[in-house]
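Late entry, written up from scratch paper. The run itself happened at the end of the previous shift, but nothing got recorded in the book at the time, so transcribing now.
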Amino acid sequence: MTPTRSLWIGNIDSSLTTADLMSIFSPYGPIESLRLLPEKECAFVNYVKIEDAIRAREEMQGGRVGNCIIRVGYGKADIYTSDAQTMQPTRALWIGNISASITPAALQAVFAPFGAIESARILTHKNCGFVNFEKVEDAAKARKEMNNKEIYGSAVRIGYAKVPPKDSTTSKIGATPFGLPFSSTLSQASTSMAPWSSSVTSLGGNSVSSSAGEQESSLSSALNNSPGTYETVDLLGPLVMDDKLIAFPYASSLPPIPEPNLNRKIDQSRLREIRKRLDSHTSSAKDVESAFHELYDDSVDLCSDYIGNTVIQKLMERGGDSHKLMLIERVAPHMASIGIHKNGTWAIQKMIDCASTPAQMQPIVNSLKPFAPPLLLDQFGNYVIQCCLRLGPQRNQFIYDAIHARCWEVAQGRFGARAIRACLESQYTTKRQQRLVSVALVHNALLLATNPNGSLLLTWLLDSSNLAGRYRALAPQFINHLSHLCTHKLASLTFFKMINQKVEPDARDLLLQGLFMQDQVLEDVLSDQVHGVGLIQKILASNYIEEADKGKFSERVKLMLGKLQVHQVQGYRRLMEEL
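Output as recorded:
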């Protein structure tokens, strides 16, 4: 097989994420792109240099990754040239290696937080897309933040592109014309619903054809004015991301654990003696103080030691406030890196649990805050962060700030999503903090809905948060992407949750009109036998929909099935019988 800079990795563990594969294969050299295909149990890794790909294949072939022995071969060489990566900044971005399932509107939604967007389009046959910003600086910021990040399951690569003329258009199916503002696209998409949606208003009384700006304002209005059972409902204010929190310079990775001190005075046998003495019921405060002075100089090393970490824990449990403060201040500069070590994490968690004064708590917060996102993503680090919840709302606020600022980055991780959920459900979490995270969840709803980890957080928002306005907030985010969401395994479940409720019927009605009264959407959903048809069946059987509406929707489905000519297809038989 001829070597290329593209590797095919087969028989991969289904639990692995794009981030996991990136961490495994990036040590061999810079990676241009990575794409994971979990349904086919394989992935593709494109290196920048062919020699890095060769070395990675030689070393990883037949190796164990997760619970599986992987196979590694060379893939088809990517003919993508580096022009987009090397040209001078422009306000147009080229996005490569995009998911086949993403739509122009979804691509627009992903990049909208970085600034005003003029247009977007997708070239499905080339697996790439283009986004035109109105300002060069917004495009540069988007490229810096999103390059090599995962979007709809694919790690994209981003470069600058030539800015097209204002009047240029494209005839590609499913593409948004260049030069056409996104708000106009929204209006056009909703025009086909006009005969049926005159009574269906989005938040604040605006019609479905509201511009993006109007939708933002109406979302804010709904969250402020929605009736609810909580007295703290007024905390559900405007759905605006906090630019100051987003701008905080969080670390993208964790520093290595400090190198062990080769001249350490304490050996393992001595550590066992000290631990035995501290465990004894007859040990006194003098014994604790003696052990503290003997171990203090080596306390950083001992935190990650198999026996040493247990001794440090004993000192934190039994030491006085001054001793605890000295240990915390000594370890604080290395707290993040030690916190992800299999031994060190227990020492760090004990320090946080035993911190009882403001002087002891503040160094912990200061040391962990810059590393909060990568800690949340780590199997041990996320528990270190969760230990900080008990420090109280003033000191644990850094956790929610980090989740708000890096929501998608953290939520797509297996440990990250579950850590976020644990924080949201904690007894120490305030309604204001839940609201701060909920704003980020709504802004990232399209990405979260199609991610196996991120979807857990939308489930929390809908089922557990009890935040008034949550359905009304999500509905406008979904309304222009129904063809994709209703045919996606996970997103269709979230969509059905929003339909199967009576808490906010206007949000439910908006989505029902969007699904059943737009010909193209209904055709797309009914054309999907795997998830789309099943979703339609569940909706028509729901007790939350009026009988009159069911009759109207059923007629629409019958007409569309006749157009599709699928009456003899096995996958549609049950639906036809129910109709």
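The chain has a mean pLDDT of 82.
(Scratch paper discarded after transcription.)
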